[in-house]
Amino acid sequence: MAYALQLTVKKIENETDTIKRFTFTSDEIPLPSFGAGAHVTLHLPMGRRQYSLVNNPLEMKNEYVIAVKKISDHNGGSGYLHECIGQGDNISVSSPDNFFPLRTEAKHHVFFAAGIGITPFVSMMAYLKTIGRSFELHYAASGERECAFHGHIQTHFPSKSTFYFMKREEKIAKLKKALQNRTMGTHIYLCGPPAFMDILLEHSHELRYPEKFIHEERFQPEVRIENPQPFFVNLVKTKKTFMVSSGQTLLNALHEIGIDVPYTCRMGVCGTCEVGIEEGDVLHCDSFLTEEEKVGKMLTCVSRGIGHIKLRL
Amino acid sequence: MSRLNGFPFPFTKDQYTYSNNSVPLDPAKTITVTADYKNELELIRKLLQKHHQRCFRSLPLSIESQWEIMLLLFNELASCNPESFTFQKMGGECLFQNHLLAEEEAFVFRDVSTIDLEPLDLVGRHVQEDLIIMGDRHDGLFLEAGQLCFPSNWSLAFVQGMEFKSIHNQVPGIQNDGFIDKVERFISKIQPGAVWERKNWSITVTNKLDTPLETYSVWGKHRQEVTCENAGDLIHLRVEVQRLFRLPMNHDVLFTIHTYLLQLNDLIQQESWLKSFYQNIKTLPEEIAEYKGISTYRTELLRFLENHMEKGRRGR
Amino acid sequence: MRHILILTEVRFKKDGLKEKELRKESGSSVELKLLDSPVDRKKIEQMLKDKPLGTMLILYTGGATRKLIRHAANSAGFSHEDVRIGKIYTGTYRIFCSQCHRINGKASLEKSIICISCGQHLEPSDHYSSFHDAYLGYPIL
Ligand code: HEM
Ligand code: FES
Ligand SMILES: [Zn+2]
């Protein structure tokens, strides 16, 4: 449950020709601490954008640092940050969340990064070095000039890092090789373009590594309904039909007609208010159900039907 | 009446069932300092002194989370109660001052040579809560450390290292409809920054806070002594305010338990509580009553409550 | 298929071998190691070192040895579910005394017992800890 912080842009530095480092801070509030692998969400005019924090969580001095690669013009998030944001500007930033935590139980951490996918690992490596844990980095980029944090990594983790600047085929072969012959206690982390992650993930399957030892950074866009639409509901057991208006949740509507669906959080995180779906399309907005479960169930406190749905109630 | 003020009365409905009754807390605080602070800390320290093996357990894996919790709680104590506690951190050098107990803890963050106890054991001696660390491993949540002085009939020594689900094995009906799996999933999805709170309740005969399984033979026998006459004195509603917090840095879960006791004689002063308590005890499913240890004296307790409700009606 | 390491005490060798054959048939690469008694934690740690990522450990041993191996395996990076217990009857159940924490070996879970350490009358339960490899014994008043 991230909440918004009003921060100031303290510094903007060039990391490479296309990548800039932004440092945010506040004079008024202590910034919440975070873990390696955490990200913040920036609230920009074109919407929300998530970026991994690159600073060492153990040495945070009331600053959040992110690195952004320009992949759009100023109408997109990265272009906007590059072109329209300057030192001293204010920016609204959600407190850190973490979908990509380090596994404390690992004996050895192996990081595979491509391009700007290096960012969470910059934080992770600094953290692991501070607490004295074992790790190694395999980092693919198109060349040294384009390679974000190249100098930083060479200075701080030279013996633990391998760079891959060669041609694509050779790169892939070498990265695959680096994935092989891993032993128990190793946890593997992947971050980079989807194609890069897919290749390594597939190879890890070929090597019969259980999935629980492989971790990928996946930014989940928050599902939020901007303008909820009314929809119709049929209850197949109690034989009732009613409409859920745009200002109402399905849970409220059920309670109004006397169907006592239990609930607790009303935020789509506890799973208490689930009901079975008999028929129809549903806009799932919870962060609890698995993809498989979403086929037959919905959480009535946040999710909505589209048009007309039938429920097993 | 003062004892009623601030007591976390747990019943929201007329019939009690197990549910994931966790709600998000704003502001997100993991601990609370109450008027009983000094008394309870004295007891906590006495128990730790005399029965350390029973009240503190930790696995080596928990050490980083222990440090994180120590900072978190010292910070929280000081920022929420600045007149009673102060905390300063300059780089790694930390100084915590407990003005209520006239004590100081000076240490270097993450340097074990600067403290005599494990971090969780140390910070636990400044808060009223029991503290549990649930390690978030890739195959579930495991109890990896705890400082537990006031358990309600369970043993920290037994459950250390155990999976969340197995810990709950003895709770009746907890597996129905995958209930406990859902709770575990809920906890494993809690994101940093949020605190979730739930209340659990039970009944203690006598006003003893420390009712571990280890001393059951001492305190358990009082259950036989309850009569319709002495229920008001003997019986205490025991409420555990439990909070769940995702540690931002180490991604483990801190589980704090603040135990409150309210004597039945006090409880019945509040008419709505009396009614609600009565309804809940009356309709409590037998297996839950058995599990909570209420079965032995449920009849006597209900008669006591009925008498008082009767008095209330006649009084008006 | 995952790589499988079976550790078995001599007395359960037959069961261990049977498991090995079964696993082989389903296509796993299987290693079986006989343990000498008493087991030595150092030796176990050596055995568990550098096993291929994804190795599953299956134990054919008595309770005390199981506990020791599980703990060694956890520190070698095996997670809870990477350690499995073979289906064997060891002849004793381990019962954790809820009063003094002593683990008592007993032939059955049905009958109540007296703790050999503190003398408490205990009723064994199905509350099982894989960490202690023992069942909780509740006090009888
Ligand atoms: C994550 C931290 C938690 C820990 C360490 C924990 C531990 C325990 C323990 C040790 C017991 C006593 C079991 C026994 O009698 O042997 C218990 C009981 C119980 N727990 Fe948890 N628990 C946790 C969180 C939760 C949550 C989040 C829920 C529900 C939403 C829950 C639901 C229950 C229930 C319903 C009982 C029975 C209580 C009673 O009737 O008195 N627990 N828990
Ligand atoms: S009430 Fe919690 S998910 Fe709906
Ligand atoms: Zn004993």
Concise synopsis of the structure shown:
The complex is a heterotrimer of chains A (313), B (316) and C (141). By secondary structure, chain B is an alpha+beta fold.
Kindly list the characteristics that best describe this protein.
heterotrimer; A: alpha/beta; Elongation Factor Tu (Ef-tu), domain 3; Rossmann fold; Ubiquitin-like (UB roll); six-stranded antiparallel β-sheet; five-stranded parallel β-sheet; B: 316 residues; alpha+beta; 13 helices; binds protoporphyrin IX containing FE; binds FE2/S2 (inorganic) cluster; binds zinc ion
Helix content of chain C: 10-25%
Overall residue-averaged pLDDT value of chain A: 93
CATH architecture of the largest domain in chain A: 3-Layer(aba) Sandwich
Structural class of chain C: alpha/beta
Q: List the domain count of chain C as a whole number.
A: 2
Largest interface: A-B, 33 and 30 residues
Q: What fold name goes in the CATH topology slot of the largest domain in chain A?
A: Rossmann fold
List bound small molecules.
protoporphyrin IX containing FE, FE2/S2 (inorganic) cluster, zinc ion
The CATH class of the largest domain in chain A, by name, is Alpha Beta
Specify the overall morphology of chain A: globular
Biggest sheet descriptor of chain C: 5 strands, mixed
Strand order of the largest sheet of chain C: 6-5-9-8-7
| DSSP helical segment count of chain C | 3
